[in-house]
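re: ur question from yesterday

yeah so i grabbed the chain u mentioned. its 381 aa long if i counted rite. heres the sequnce exactly as i have it in my notes:
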Amino acid sequence: MAGKATVWTLAELKARLESLSIAEATRQVDVITTGTFEPMESSGAIINLGPTDPPIKLRQCWLDGIPAYSGFGAVDLYLGAAQSLDPTSEGGEERGGGHVIADLIAGKAIPLRAVGYVTDCYPRASLETVISKETINQFYLYNPRNLYQNFIVGVNGGDRPLYTYLGPLQPQLGNAVYACGGALSPLLNDPYLRLVGIGTRIFLGGGIGYVAWEGTQHFPLQKRLANDTPIGPAATLALIGDAKQMDPFWVRGCYFKHYGASLMLGVGVPLPVLDQEVIARCAIRDEDVVAPIIDFSIPRRVRPTFGMVNYAQLKSGKIKIEGKTVRTAPLTSLYFSQRIAEILKNWIQSGRFTLTEPIAPLPRDRAFLPQQPWMPAASDD
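ran it thru and got these structure tokens back, copy pasting raw so excuse formatting
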């Protein structure tokens, strides 16, 4: 044994499987690296300001005008990536928590304004200051829902433009937007999360992070193809990592017109090659993975679909819907996703990054429960 791991990116593996068998590839490689760079609005930052003199217990707080949640420890905050300014203020709709998080990671100074809840031990009533990542204690991302295992394709069959979390959808099936890297998407190559669990070390925002828990809306019971890949949104992960160690190149605030703020985030997941099954799972091609085409012009939770489409068709730049040619575009940066996989490969080879075995598996039996509005019981009168 040379004592050194052989690491391939997912794209390299898929290319080499053109000439290698599953068994041969299993013998040659130890780790497969994957990556994605896409909007992940269910993200946010925990920040501890440190005590003031006299002390303050935060009741309300704003970072560069963006409201942050302060309903726990005296000077602890949670800033959501999708939190926005008052949309009636100048530029208010176009800047949000994701932009502030990215600015803090980049080392910028951020104005802070706070109102205190006055008590005997916290007599201070207000605070105005400027903070940076160097002047605060803890600053880490805790993201309740990242890394969707597959997603949907959005279209608009109506007669006016729609502004959605996938971006603008043009009327009369003017475009189609998808938000998954297809066969290069990390979790689609580990469909039952055999290799990823609580405690898995990952690339997060240019630094090192971890899988903290199942993500919100985690839905591993999604229907699947014969190759076990889900036909729509399925598993998700909750991620955590030290934002002070992150790289602003891989954490960027973004804005969707007339929808709101979000966060472009780079995530890379290593897949250890335990046996031939790992390679067989990673052998999927874009034509082997499908997503549903959803019509956003119907304002309901369950919207009609135009059937399924595979990612080879989506990545070709156009698909057919009811005989009409519709142009397609990804929200995920396929180029930067592969760059992340290459960076993670280099980190492992150089010894900067070591793999961890999960300390607990992620659940495979979670149902997806929609919320129903409360309706009063009918009166007998």
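noticed a couple things. The helical segments are 10-16, 22-28, 97-105, 276-282, 311-315, 334-350. also The longest helix spans residues 334-350.
anyway ttyl
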